[in-house]
């Protein structure tokens, strides 16, 4: 019997996996997906990580090192957006610019790998994992553009695609619960929230131990329960809207009703986000007070919480 009472992965990304002691879970997932030994160096507290999902999805940016010692910025996203591919382009582009320092040479830009966990059908493909890279093909002879020896030496890379963002799209609705390898074990967990006995993919045993709902503090479990209920309400709302629209057909007023419902839902989402931001800020303040009580250096508290020195002194 597998472990069924596990925290959903999107919640874990926002609340649990950002802690250094839990890096092993994301390291395992990324290692299996990228077929490389991935080590997380830090969670990047970028603008992206702090904005609402109306702008950025549920997303976390991570600086990692692979087995060759190469530094890479990985962005893991969990999304249900209709205009997802356009938002994907936006988010990866902004990730690159966010992590460029003033005066930085273009050749110093870190490679970005975007991993998207999708709970909706995207496009018409039949596979459940897609990888996207950038290459340049000759119009006349279809030859692939390569780096010359000087570029390889200067850039420290071997191929043109090593420069540009790389995309992984995981479409869970296309996955049919067959586990043929360790990567499939991770996909099974992402889709079903369950880790079966006998699964041995990297990171899954840690996930099974650390993501148990019953091991959460009462307050955190209540927040998680509210979050799950909100997702159920959202799914129910979308389903009911779809059925109602199909029944109405071409009846007059259909467009007005759709707009009205969208406005209502927009207000509901805004209120949910406002409450979520308030809870997040309260948790940050609590952590800052605890660190301050433990006489932690103020520079460390600033790095850990994102608060300013004046805000910390006022606690």
Key phrases:
single chain; 2 domains; 12 helices; 48% helix
Topology:
Layout: H1 9-15, H2 23-34, E1 39-43, H3 47-50, H4 53-56, E2 58-65, E3 71-79, H5 84-98, E4 111-118, E5 129-132, H6 149-155, E6 166-171, H7 182-192, H8 204-210, H9 218-248, H10 254-293, H11 298-305, H12 309-313
Parallel strand pairs: 3-4, 4-6
Antiparallel strand pairs: 1-2, 2-3, 5-6
Order of helices and strands: HHEHHEEHEEHEHHHHHH
**Uncertain regions: pLDDT < 50 for 5+ in a row?**
47-57
- Average pLDDT for all residues: 80
Main beta sheet? 6 strands, mixed
Question: How many domains make up the 3D coordinates?
Answer: 2
Number of strands: 6
From the alpha carbons, calculate the radius of gyration and give it in angstroms.
Answer: 22 Å
The global form is globular
Total number of helices: 12
Label the structural class: alpha/beta
Arrangement of strands in the largest sheet:
1-2-3-4-6-5
The proportion of strand residues reads 5-15%
Distance between the termini: 48 Å
Give the fraction of residues assigned to helices. Answer: 40-55%
């Amino acid at each position: 019997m597998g472990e069924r009472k596990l925290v959903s992965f999107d919640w874990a990304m926002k609340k649990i996996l950002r802690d250094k002691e839990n890096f092993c879970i994301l390291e395992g997932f990324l290692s299996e997906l990228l077929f490389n030994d991935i080590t997380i160096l830090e969670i990047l507290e970028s603008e992206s990580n702090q904005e609402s999902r109306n702008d950025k999805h549920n997303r976390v940016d991570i600086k990692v090192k692979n087995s060759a010692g190469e530094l890479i910025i990985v962005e893991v996203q969990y999304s249900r957006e209709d205009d997802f591919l356009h938002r994907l382009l936006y988010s990866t582009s902004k990730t690159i610019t966010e992590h460029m320092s003033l005066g930085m040479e273009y050749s110093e830009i870190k490679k970005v790998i975007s991993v998207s966990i999708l709970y909706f059908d995207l496009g018409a493909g039949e596979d459940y994992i897609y990888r996207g890279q950038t290459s340049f093909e000759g119009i006349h002879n279809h030859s692939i553009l390569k780096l010359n020896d000087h570029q390889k030496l200067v850039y420290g890379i071997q191929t043109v695609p090593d420069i540009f963002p790389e995309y992984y799209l995981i479409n869970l609705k296309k996955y049919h619960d067959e586990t043929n390898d360790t990567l499939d074990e991770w996909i099974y967990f992402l889709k079903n929230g369950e880790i079966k006995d006998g699964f041995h993919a990297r990171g899954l045993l840690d996930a099974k131990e650390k993501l148990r709902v019953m091991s959460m503090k009462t307050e955190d479990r209540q927040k998680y329960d509210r979050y799950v209920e909100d997702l159920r309400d959202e799914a129910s709302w979308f389903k009911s809207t779809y059925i109602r629209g199909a029944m109405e057909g071409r009846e007059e007023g259909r467009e007005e009703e759709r707009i009205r419902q969208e406005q209502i839902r927009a207000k509901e989402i805004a209120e949910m986000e406002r409450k979520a931001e308030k809870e997040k800020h309260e948790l940050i303040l609590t952590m800052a007070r605890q660190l301050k009580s433990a006489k932690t250096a103020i520079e460390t508290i600033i790095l850990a919480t994102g608060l300013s020195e004046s805000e910390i002194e006022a606690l």
